[in-house]
Amino acid sequence: MLPQRNLWVAVLLITGLIGANLYTLEGRPRRVLLDTDVDTDDIFALLYLLKQNRSELEVEAVTINANAWTDAGHSVNQIYDILYMMGRGDIAVGVGGDGGILEDGTILPNVGGFLPIIEQGISTVGYCRYRQAIPIGSRGRLDLDANYGIRKAFLPQGRRKYTPLRQPTAQQVMIEEISAGPITVFLIGAHTNFAIFLMNNPHLKKNIKHIYVMGGGVRSKNPTGCCPKNAGSSCVPQQCGDHGNLYTAHASNPNAEFNMFGDPFAAYQVFHSGIPITLVPLDATDTIPISEKFFDTFEQNQNTYEAQYCFQSLKISRDTWFGNQFYKSYFMWDSFAAGVATSIMLNSHNHNGENEFAEMEYMNITVVTSNKPYRIHDGSNPFFDDCGAPKFNLKEGGVHSGHVQTGLRDPFCIVKNGKGKCQDGYTAEVTGLEAVRVLVATRAKPSQETNSSLDREFYMSFLCTLNRPQHTGRFSFRSQFPYYKEVLYKPDFGSKTLGKPVVFDMDMSAGDFLALFYLLKVPVEVINLKAIIVSPTGWANAATIDVIYDLLHMMGRDDIQVGLGDLFAMNQSDPSFSAVGDCKYIKAIPHGSGGFLDSDTLYGLARTLPRSPRRYTAENSVKYGAPRDTDHPERRQPLALEVWKSVVKSLDPGSKVTILTNGPLTNLAKIILSEKNTTSLIQDVYIVGGHIYHGDTDKGNVFTVRSNEYAEFNMFLDPVAAKTIFDSELNITLIPLGIQRRVASFPRLLEKFQDIKRTDEAKFARCLLTRLYRLQQIDIRYQHMDTFFGEILGAVALAGDHTTLKPTSRVKPIKVFAEGVESKDGQTVIDKEHGKLVRILKKVNHTAYYDLFANQLGNSKQSAVIGSFDDQRRMWSTNIT
User: Fold this and answer.
1) How far, in Å, CA of 141 to CA of 542, rounded?
2) CA distance 157 to 141
3) Name one GO molecular function term (predicted).
4) Which candidate, 527, 536, 480, places its Cα nearest to that of 508?
5) What is the pLDDT of residues 309-364, one digit of tens each?
6) What residues does 816 pair with on adjacent strands?
7) Which residues pair with 688 in a beta bridge?
8) Which pLDDT tens digit goes with each residue over 730-763?
9) Helices (H) and strands (E) in the chain, counts
10) Is 463 a residue whose pLDDT tops 70?
11) pLDDT surpasses 70 at 9
């Protein structure tokens, strides 16, 4: 292990060498734009770049690749927090955009990069052709959106944040920064953003000096998934020897690497742009794993906040890694690429990519976008199959005209008893017109110190750079506030007789949070909210569960359990690898404005809530199926079914639970299928959703699926679950789309808020309602905001004063379609022969409804104990208790 004093000697030596040899020719810093998917190793790369001498290298902008390992709303705020920690609020940040591509290939402004180019239509709605290879939950998008739970625990929170219609888009930032003068571009995610920029702004290519890419595998042979030398015949190699690293899809495509596979056509456009490219592929990164010696040395050398953040991220990655091969299968991907690129850039005497960290070689390569035979029309290739003339003037019979991989288990790609044959995203060596001469890193250089325990030269550079005192982080979340205290707020109900036990099943849409406020404000003698179970199969991604924790903390209800439900709708996870799966239904939700980007940030307001000590973490234990115990298994995120069982166990003898569902019915279906007689423990189920249509003009609200005119989102997003519920013995009250629409009046409800007491929860609800209403008024992408307004009704109907609300209902036999047909799934119809008798809410007193909601939130009882993050900021800064 390297002693700390020796490390600092190395810091001074490296700093001196850099200062002596790495001045730029122009005497000005080399400008850098980083396009990233904000994976853990991307964070390492970003911090490595931010630590460079700013007189030599200046990070001007960060744009976020939103169709890979993280979701836009979570990743953009993490970038803002990292930059705040590093004192770099000057760096432009771009994400998303709602532009589209027309059928004739015309690229509209501000295409958001939420979808690969081949799937990009005129909106941010589209299929997950390539992204389905990325796990959604553990060690996938959930963990990376939250950075395993470390993001909220460690990073300070500044004033910059995502705000609807004000957030600079990725294309806006690229155009502005590249127009400003010569710049170098780093691509460490899928290439969608930059390819769109190049295709739409060819006149600005002249300002791009060089492109550095981490991704692909040219001659690489995957060292993971191999059988030990002494293994018997029962051991079956997995990715062993493959060019690529698609561990979830190697059976269909053993050739691609994740960054290239995320958008092969975009990568092709970048490589064939004519701009000089240096590639750091798996060939090189596979030779620089996170070794145990490096890990141990890093653990002993965390002298800056950025080093601490990186190490904590690395440690939880190790502790949650599948199997026991972390030190042989986790590599320095993007951080190594950043090191190689920086060393090349700052060496003014460089002619052939000479650098300190990697051996280099020129190769002739291309990026494969389709599979032979070419000129095939099998429905897999929208560039050729969906239009009269090929899109973007592509050549009929050319390299883009073959079969394009459609999914993880594409039958075209599967070879019985052999490796898959698809090559989409493969960085292949070729000759002829398709060949592009690219400078390629082939392997990591060994340490120049022969006696060093760190046997790669870059190991030392990475540790020295992160620990260097120059350009260091200012504080972490805890050190930002001198009087920070971690406090949980739990109520004391004393001798109160608690009301009926209720479980709230929510998908974390904006309306669900308004409904949650209401449930928390209803007297506990009427409603005893026992738990919240979260369905991430609806309008928000799973990491948004942190917003629930923050709202509960605000309301002094840290006692309420929160369980995370299944990440896929029923029958949508892959049967061979359950961490990945299809997006047949959830693809209907927009990724950009009015969709996931806004829901995950609660329309830009989530960060105004007080920050709870409770949050999602990847902490886990062997008891719950983890490969090993992490440091704090007690912080493990409970699952929805576990929380349900805990609620049932806590019931008084003879008591039953009432359930309110405000999203897809995935959780409820799983609950009733989990054990026999579960339905006997449920008193009533209030379901907000479904649409009973009356005539051709009475449409549903799945506005993104034109073929399905009569479905409602909550039923459409998991029709199999909905059918399971409506085939059960549950007592159901349905609050359908019709009654939701009749009471959805933003102006009338906002008028009621003028006359009530301004509790903190009332102020927040009014702010959220006002934002939704204004967005609806000024932008067509927000026309569906009434959908979320209507979701309040379920909570009011469940708990409201029926003497004033005056609800009327009718009982009808209801059937839900779940036939695997997109144009019909999720539709709820009256079927006298096969339907289940359901009580359907038909009418309420509108005025009483608005009064009940506004007055309850304005009631000073059961009010917020801490109003906002700004209140916490003041309290932790001045020792106010």
Assistant:
1) 9
2) 22
3) hydrolase activity, hydrolyzing N-glycosyl compounds
4) 536
5) 999 999 999 999 988 889 999 999 999 999 999 999 998 677 789 999 999 999 99
6) 828
7) 735
8) 999 999 999 999 999 999 999 999 988 899 999 9
9) 32, 18
10) yes
11) no
The whole-angstrom separation of Cα 237 and Cα 234 is: 10
For residue 659, what are its two tokens? 């359930």
Residue 166 has pLDDT above 50, yes or no: yes
Q: Which of 789, 748, 768 is nearest to 551 (CA)?
A: 768
The contacts of residue 17 (CB under 8 Å, 6+ apart) are none
Look up residue 635 and give its two tokens: 């912080």
Q: List for the chain the helix, strand, coil content (%; round to 5).
A: 35, 15, 50
pLDDT at 7: 53
Strands 436-444 and 277-280: parallel
Contact 425, 257 (CB under 8 A): yes
Handedness of CA 324, 328, 333, 336 (dihedral sign): positive
- Cα distance between residue 232 and residue 236, in whole Å: 9
In angstroms, rounded to a whole number, what is the distance separating the alpha carbons of residues 98 and 108? 9
Beta partners for residue 687, in sequence order = 661, 734
**Beta strands, E only, 628-671:** 657-661
Tokens 């279906």 found at: 669
Tell me how far apart the alpha carbons of residues 351 and 821 are, in angstroms, rounded to a whole number: 59
Question: Quick one: pLDDT at residue 12?
Answer: 42
Between the CA of residue 262 and those of 120, 188, 369, 499, 696, what are the distances in Å? Answer: 13, 11, 11, 51, 40
pLDDT of residue 70 exceeding 70: yes
Question: Is the separation of the CB atoms in 146 and 74 below 8 Å?
Answer: yes
Q: What is the pLDDT of residue 347?
A: 85
Please, are residues 747 and 772 in contact by the beta-carbon 8 Å criterion?
A: no
> Quick one: tokens of 197?
């920029």
606: CB partners within 8 A, 6+ apart: 544, 547, 550, 600
Per-residue pLDDT of 564-601, as tens digits, reads 999 999 999 999 899 999 999 999 999 999 999 999 99
| Whether the Cβ atoms of residue 531 and residue 644 lie closer than 8 Å to each other | yes
Q: Which residues pair with 367 in a beta bridge?
A: 427
In the block, residue with structure tokens 């002094």 = 556
Question: What number of other Cβ atoms are within 10 A of residue 417's Cβ?
Answer: 4
Q: Residue 288 corresponds to which tokens in the numbers above?
A: 């620089």
Strand arrangement of the beta sheet that strand 732-735 belongs to: 561-564, 527-534, 500-506, 657-661, 682-688, 732-735, 836-843, 808-816, 828-830
Chain-centroid distance, C-alpha 114: 11
541 close to 596: Cβ distance less than 8 angstroms: yes
Spatial separation of the C-alpha atoms in residues 588 and 717, rounded to whole Å: 8
Q: Retrieve residue 55's tokens.
A: 């007189």
**Cα radius of gyration rounded to whole Å, the chain:** 28
Please, what's the largest Cα pairwise distance for the chain?
85
Do residues 184 and 33 make contact, with C-beta atoms less than 8 angstroms apart?
yes
Compute the Cα dihedral for 230, 231, 233, 236 and give only its sign: negative
793 closest CA partner among 667, 658, 603, 662: 662
Torsion of CA 475, 481, 485, 488, to 10 degrees: -80
Q: How far are the Cα atoms of 659, 731, 843, 847 from residue 814, in angstroms, in the given order?
A: 19, 13, 18, 29
CA 391/CA 657 separation, integer angstroms: 55
Asked if residues 247 and 414 have their Cβ atoms less than 8 Å apart, the reply is: no
- CA distance readout (Å), 801 to 521, 522, 683, 824, 844: 13, 10, 19, 37, 11
DSSP designation for 599: H
What are the φ/ψ torsions at residue 660 (nearest 5 degrees)?
-110, 120
Per the listing, tokens 């690395």 go with: 314
Residue matched to tokens 């770099």? 88
In the block, residue with structure tokens 């939950």? 137
H or E element, residue 310: helix 305-319
Q: How far apart are CA 397 and CA 376, in angstroms?
A: 8
β-strand 808-816 against 828-830: which pairing, if any? antiparallel
According to DSSP, residue 639 is labeled B
